[in-house]
Amino acid sequence: MFQHRHLMIRPDPARTVVRPFAPGYPDRFRRPGHDRAQVIVDRVLGLDDEQLAAEERNVSLSLDERHRDVGPMLDHRFEDMADQIAGADAIAPAQRRLIGAYFSEEYAFAAAALFNPSAVLHPDQSGLADGQLRYLISLRGIGEGHVSSVAFRTGTWTPGGELCLDAASEVAVPPVITQNDSGDGVVCLDCSGSRDLSETVIFPVLPRQRQGIEDMRLVRFTEDDGGVRYYGTYTAFSGSDAKPELLLTEDFRHFAMKPLSGDAAGAKGMALFPRRIDGRFVMLGRQDSENIWLHHADEPTRWDGGAVLIAPRYPWEFVQMGNCGSPIELDEGWLVLTHGVGTVRNYCMGAALLDKADPTKLLARTPKPILEPSPDERDGYVPNVVYSCGALLHGRELMLPYGVSDQFTSFATCSVDELLAAMA
Questions:
Q1: 323 phi and psi, to 5 degrees?
Q2: For residues 353 and 384, what is the distance between their CA atoms, to the nearest angstrom?
Q3: Which residues are bridge partners to 249 per DSSP?
Q4: Which residues contact 356 (CB under 8 A, 6 or more apart)?
Q5: Strand ranges, E, within 172-260
Q6: C-alpha to C-alpha distance for 301 and 260, rounded to whole angstroms
Q7: C-alpha to C-alpha distance for 415 and 424, rounded to whole angstroms
Q8: Are 218 and 138 in contact (CB under 8 A)?
């Protein structure tokens, strides 16, 4: 059914982003008036001119090859922590930059894995050949400490023809926080420093996200008035608690990140429908870690109630089911790609069809997997897994990027008609 494409996105330890570094003392060594940051700053201020120049050269040799605008970036890091530094206003520019370097670190955001992609139509469709479209995908990158970040790639696709992936930039650019949780949990990020979407990396910026931003499900959402924006539902993992959150953007340069609330907002894998139905937002979820649930809400950040929509029926999904991205609108109804967990914790993918006017009605589903780990896709960080966070439809053809064994990403395409014919 699926035609596997010879495209892969693999982890790359050479791509790094510069993020804040904040060393502190262990609890038993903390005492009033003895601040680790100030101790390091005082050591920098004690360098003579020759030592200062030598350390500046070392920083340039370390960062200039893989990063742009290093000086302004280090100045910005100093400004972020200036309120922690005694006499910050009187510190000379060269010293400020070096202090910024001491409180920064290079982070290989996808050194271990780059997987669980979600595809949407790119907001810029200019300059394309007839029948061709430009897509973008979000990816879950895993780096040091098994911390998950969001990365992006772009490409072009001609349904029935060529599927291409744009080369990734050698540069990765950290987001600039323009609003930092002023009590409502909302964080705003400016990523306009990226010249290419592949340069944008969104790493955890709050304690509730400390261990990762996981498995984003992007959707191109069309409002009733025809306006378009992009939402992304993801899991914020603090290291102990996993909570769903929502990313919002219109241009993939400026982002808002908002926590979800309500009694249904405690589960992984929530996926938003691409438009309102009867004036309300609609979401898929997996609240009980077993079944696919359906929820309705008046706003996209609060979710209460809900009911089981699809339950395990076939052996390959006996352990649990979940969605593989936001529903896709067809003439026949809402196409939902699913995942099922079976024996030996194998993850396979299936599909279901919901009524277009009333998505509480399940019309059909695939009794057999439509995609399962092949012999050359079984090995990886988590063996025996194929998983996606969102496919892209054009005409009657589906483009599916999918993660393999929680390590890398592959691509496949198929006819929607063949997919529907496989349902019962």
A1: -85, 160
A2: 26
A3: 230, 255
A4: 329, 330, 332, 333, 334
A5: 176-180, 187-190, 201-202, 212-222, 228-237, 242-249, 254-259
A6: 5
A7: 17
A8: yes
59: which 2 tokens? 């920083």
Q: Which two tokens stand for residue 209?
A: 């996200």
Structure token digits, residue 213: 């931003």
One-character DSSP codes across 367-380: SS-SB---GGGS-S
C-alpha 327/C-alpha 282 separation (Å) is 10
Task: Round to whole Å and give the CA distance between 363 and 327.
Answer: 14
Indicate the angle between helix axes 49-63 and 93-102, nearest 10 degrees: 50
Give the separation between CA 389 and CA 263, rounded to whole angstroms.
23
* Sheet strands (E) in 23-165: 104-107, 113-121, 133-143, 147-157, 163-165
Q: List per-block mean pLDDT (blocks of 10 residues) for the chain, which spans 424 residues.
A: 92 96 92 90 96 96 92 94 93 97 97 97 96 97 96 96 96 92 90 96 94 97 97 96 96 97 92 98 97 98 97 98 98 98 96 98 98 79 92 97 96 97 97
Query: Tokens at residue 242, please?
Result: 């996993």
pLDDT of residue 18: 96
Beta bridge partners of 248: 231, 256
Instruction: Tell me how far apart the alpha carbons of residues 111 and 103 are, in angstroms, rounded to a whole number.
Output: 22
Long-range contacts of 262-267 (CB under 8 A, 24+ apart): 262/297, 262/302, 262/303, 262/304, 263/303, 263/304, 263/305, 264/293, 264/295, 264/303, 264/304, 264/305, 264/306, 265/302, 265/303
Predicted local confidence at residue 380, as pLDDT: 78
Alpha carbon of 338 to those of 51, 366, 372, 420: distances in Å?
Answer: 59, 10, 12, 14
Closest CA to 400 of 376, 378, 416: 416
Burial of 120 per CB tally in 10 Å (0-12, 13-18, 19+):
buried
d(CA 74, CA 80): 10
> What three-state secondary structure class fits 339?
strand
The pLDDT of residue 276? 98
What the block records as the tokens of 378 is 């079984």
By the 8 A CB rule, do 192 and 180 touch? no
Give the CA-trace dihedral at 50, 55, 59, 61, to 10 degrees.
70
Write the CB contacts of 87 (distance below 8 Å, at least 6 apart in sequence): none
CA–CA distance, 387 with 406 (Å, rounded to integer): 8
Q: What tokens appear for 159 in the block?
A: 């349904």
Cβ-based burial of 395 (10 A; exposed 0-12, middle 13-18, buried ≥19): exposed
The torsion angles phi and psi of 316, rounded to 5 degrees, stand at -75, -5
CA distance to 19, 86, 368, 389, per residue, from 392 (Å): 32, 53, 22, 11
Tokens 């601040």: give the residue: 35
